[in-house]
Amino acid sequence: MAQNKDIKNVIVLIPDGTSLASVSAARWYQRYNHPEITKLNIDPYLCGTILTYSSNAPIGDSAPTTSCYMTGYPSRAGYVATYPVADPKSDIVPTDPDRAYQPMMTAMEAARISLNKSTGLVFTCEFPHATPADCAAHSYSRSKYEWIAPQMVHNKLDVVIGGGVGILRDEDKQYLSDEGYGIFMNDIDNFRNYQGNKMWALFKDKDMSYDIDRNPDEEPSLAEMTQKAIEKLSRNKNGFFLMVEGSKIDWGAHANDAAAIITDMLAFDKACGVAFDFAKKNGKTLVIVVPDHGNSGFSIGSRKCPGYSTMSAEQLFGNISQFKTSVEGLIAKLHNTDPANLREVVNELTGIYLDDEEHNEMLKCADYKRSSLSDEERMRGTQLTKVVAGILDKRTCFDFTTTGHTGEEVFLAVYDPTPKRMTGHHTNIELNTYLRRSLGFKQNLESMTDEYFAKHTDVFEAYAYSIQTRNGIPVLEVKKDDIAVLEIQPNTNIIKHNGKEVQLNSVVVYVDKNNTFYLPQSLQNLVAK
After folding, report:
1. CATH no. for 454-528
2. CB neighbourhood size of 512 (10 A)
3. pLDDT of residue 4
4. Angle at Cα 404 formed by Cα 402 and Cα 408, nearest 5°?
5. Nearest Cα residue to 61 out of 134, 10, 113, 8
6. CB distance 475 to 467 below 8 Å
7. 138-172 burial string, b = 16+ CB within 10 Å, else e?
8. Any residues with CB less than 8 A from the CB of 377 and at least 6 apart, and which?
9. For the chain, does the N or the C end have fewer beta carbons within 10 angstroms?
10. How confident is the model at residue 382 (pLDDT cuts 50, 70, 90)?
11. Average pLDDT of the chain?
């Protein structure tokens, strides 16, 4: 496939777990509070819907759904850019059992390896979380940060901005420093002033704050992070691939926290505005905005509000517009508040005056450590998060059907500088096809998968090899004429050849399920030297 000369840069923006009702609520909230702003930044570019699913289930989580956007193949729940294990009774797409657990080349990795483009990630969760990980790491378990994080560090990403200070190890920082990166941990001033091209800038121990709780003197907005990433990445004459995730819209939906959903969606929309503005000026940038799945069954209108269908904008959006914090932010505040001032703090941050029943319900929460009640008086099993969310929810006419993901189609918005803009209804696989065609890879993702993630048993079948465990880490040793030639560890791009370190253009992945290393076929040539 010839490279598309009309498209040099690609920006994919993913509002995680965003159902269409979340978009509508954000738009109405903005109109209510700013009547002069009647549209979102995404509105002129809305052009279709995407059916997103796992390999064996119509409802997906972030790992397999974004994985499909990046690789072109749906995978199973929890799988990060990894080929699914076959499930013949439930598989929606044909699955090859022989490929189970094989890492799959992502569009972002291929853009760097095949087209020499710069690559970047921006997000508000911690960096090894499912969606950013799907672009630059591989694992059958999204929770294995100990595998995913070092892969992302060693995958030659040019710009990484988001959460996760507490996850980046000292050895990771040292590697990045040796490779010429600017490294900024909770350092917003130097993040803003850094003049170099390559950077890792992380804020907060794990995930960043919801935008409604964010202190702008400590944490940049998603829009600012997006602007900074584009500034750095656009210096590459070959172009760039950037993924931006509005991570915590999904978290707000899981928490049934309407204020967090709405305000984080608006923060995400501002980041979209940054991307669209750049694309229109640049003239060679494709911008795709698409959620990975729905979440929570969020609705504007609820049976708990009789006559909700004829309520005014004031009645629907007035109360929530007084909320100055998320449920998470309110609870953090309460844990540092004398219980005698509980009513006052809740009223100040939400406009809600607790009645006696609500006040007592909060004091009885088992995890409310500042409660004036004794341990015996507090209700075992009742969590402050659930109680606070319920109290706030009662003051709105929104509703939720679940705290989990949902299976409806998600919206698609596209700015394409060519006449070939994707429109209409498509699947997640077809979105990847559009992405491939727009980038014009020199080599398709499937053949790159086979080239860079081949089984060690195939690559070294003509040589003696063994897998040993050293300090809990599997190490592949390859011998020629009874002499160790290669020493290979997983989750890094560094191997040892005759005792000397060699950097690969991709990361090595080890899968314990089948005791297999996945690595470049070209390593066979190193052994032969």
Report:
1. 3.30.457.10
2. 12
3. 64
4. 85
5. 134
6. yes
7. bbbebebbebbbbbbbbbbbbbbbbbbbebbeeeb
8. 364
9. C
10. confident
11. 96
Q: How far is the C-alpha of 120 from the C-alpha of 283, rounded, in Å?
A: 20
Half-sphere exposure (Cβ direction) of 333: Cα atoms closer than 13 Å: 19
Pair of tokens at residue 279: 């694309």
pTM over 0.90: yes
- pLDDT of 377 reads 86
Helix or strand (DSSP H, E) at 123: strand 118-126
The single residue listed with the structure tokens 């309407």 is 258
Could you give the CA distance from residue 141 to residue 76 in angstroms, rounded to a whole number?
A: 10
For residue 379, pLDDT beyond 90: no
Q: Where are the domains of the chain?
A: 10-299+404-450, 321-395, 454-528
The answer to whether residue 3 scores a pLDDT higher than 70 is no
Question: Taking a C-beta distance cutoff of 8 angstroms, is the pair 187, 201 a contact?
Answer: yes
DSSP for 229-276 reads HHHHHTT-TT-EEEEEEETHHHHHHHTT-HHHHHHHHHHHHHHHHHHH
Residue 381: pLDDT band with limits 50, 70, 90: confident
Residue 527: count other Cβ atoms within 10 Å of its Cβ.
17
Residues 62 and 132: their CA atoms lie apart, in Å, by 10
Note the pLDDT tens digit of each residue in 114-163. 999 999 999 999 999 999 999 999 999 999 999 999 999 999 999 999 99
Q: What ranges make up the beta strands (E) of 433-529?
A: 454-455, 464-470, 473-480, 483-488, 492-497, 500-511, 516-519
Q: What is the pLDDT of residues 464-492, one digit of tens each?
A: 999 999 999 999 999 988 888 999 999 99
Burial class (CB in 10 A: 0-12, 13-18, 19+), 233: buried
Is the Cβ–Cβ distance between 255 and 327 less than 8 Å?
Answer: yes
Domain 10-299+404-450 has CATH 3.40.720.10: yes
Q: Which two tokens stand for residue 241?
A: 């691939």
How many residues are listed for the chain in this entry?
529
- Given a contact cutoff of 8 angstroms between Cβ atoms, the answer to whether 127 and 162 are in contact is yes
Q: What is the residue-wise DSSP string for 167-208?
A: TS-HHHHHHHHHTT-EEEES-HHHHHH--SS-EEEE-SSSSP
